[in-house]
Design brief:
mainly alpha; 2 domains; 4 helices; 0% strand
């Protein structure tokens, strides 16, 4: 527990920046019109593809006893994959709306 508190104390500014980025991202995405949602989702899919590759690299380079890096890497791979798949599903659904009906 003391290690976690020391880590938080050492990286306090980075943690504040990440929390502020989360709130800013939610605000920005919430204001996007539905017309721009499909191109935005495609960009998010590309970014999360990079996140997945980075997480795999982190997991591959982590020591066997570094459970924090392994767990965070695993979570990043799972959540990034879910986001990419969900993004493709949403994009496909939105593109279906613009196809001509038979």
């Amino acid at each position: 527990m003391e290690n976690i508190l020391n880590f938080i104390k050492e990286h306090e500014q980075i943690i504040y920046i990440v929390v502020l980025m989360i709130f800013l991202g939610i605000e920005v995405i919430g204001k996007v019109p539905s017309v721009l949602h499909t191109p935005l989702m495609s960009g998010a899919n590309a970014i999360h593809g990079v996140v997945i590759i980075g997480a795999i690299i982190v997991m591959g380079k982590a020591e066997a006893d570094n459970y924090l890096a392994l767990v965070l890497g695993f979570l990043a791979v799972i959540l990034g994959t879910l986001n990419v798949v969900g993004g493709f599903v949403v994009t496909d659904r939105m593109l279906e709306m613009f196809k001509k009906k038979k």
